[in-house]
Structures are given as structure tokens and as C-alpha cells.
């Protein structure tokens, strides 16, 4: 059976234990990278990681990006969201389907507006 792990500062991750998830405290990027590596070796299917730590170890996480498992998902900490998790999701969707479904790509939004000039013409 696949397992779910949560990595982050104590205050941000302890509540996940009540949901049956394995919780791993990490106070700095080195601890977080080591914890991710251990969970990967233990075949965890999903690893939630607080955004600040995920952003700090983003280059380290790249080695796992193209694997089917684990899914490494940034989550907000108790201090709130940094926006890193949403940017990661947006990039993953853009890579998978070729468009930004979340509207973060202003250039693409501009090109969609001009793709159908006939829509801009008023009928008389």
C-alpha cells in the first residue's frame, strides 16, 4: 500500500498526523532534502512539503520531477502561502497540456484575445 508523507516545520505539519499521514519535521533545507530522499527510497507515493522548504530545495527536487512516483506537492505552511505551490502546479499543467489553465501567462492570454478578431466586430 502506498504511503503519504508530510515534511515541514512542526507547527505546519503536525495536524496531518491526525489524518493518518506520516509526518517528518524539517527545520532547514538540508533536513528537508534528506527527508525527501528517505521518503523516495521508502517508496512513498505522495510527499507534501511546505512551500518555503520546497522552494529552497527546488533544484534538488528536479531529479524527481519526471518520475511517476512520488508526487511531490508544495503546501502552504502555517504562516501562509508563498505562491510557490500554485506556480509549480501551473507549470506542470502548462507542460502537460501546453496552455496555462490558471491564467498566469499574460502573453498567452493576450494571444487568445486576438486569436478571433471576428469576435471583436460589432454587428450592425
Question: What's the structural blueprint in terms of helices and strands?
Answer:
Layout lengths: L3 E5 L1 H4 L8 E4 L3 H13 L4 E5 H6 L1 H4 L9 E5 L8 H14 L8 H9 L10
Parallel strand pairs: 1-2, 1-3, 3-4
Tell me, briefly, the overall form.
globular
Helix/strand structural class: alpha/beta
Q: Give the H and E element order.
A: EHEHEHHEHH
Helix content: 40-55%
User: Which strand order do you get reading across the main beta sheet?
Assistant: 2-1-3-4
What is the percentage of strand-forming residues?
A: 15-25%
Q: Which stretches are poorly predicted, pLDDT < 50 over at least 5 residues?
A: 106-117
What do we call the CATH homologous superfamily of the largest domain?
ATPase, V1 complex, subunit F
What would you note in describing this structure?
- This protein has 124 residues and is α/β, with parallel strands linked by helices.
- It folds into two domains: 1-81, Rossmann fold (3-Layer(aba) Sandwich); 83-115, no CATH class.
- Helix content is 40%, strand content 15%.
- The chain contains six helices and four strands; from the N terminus they run βαβαβααβαα.
- It has helices at 10-13, 29-41, 51-56, 58-61, 84-97, 106-114, and strands spanning 4-8, 22-25, 46-50, 71-75.
- The protein has a four-stranded parallel beta sheet with strand order 2-1-3-4.
- Strand 1, helix 1 (10-13) and strand 2 (22-25) form a beta-alpha-beta unit.
- The chain is globular.
- It starts with a strand and ends in a 10-residue tail after the last helix.
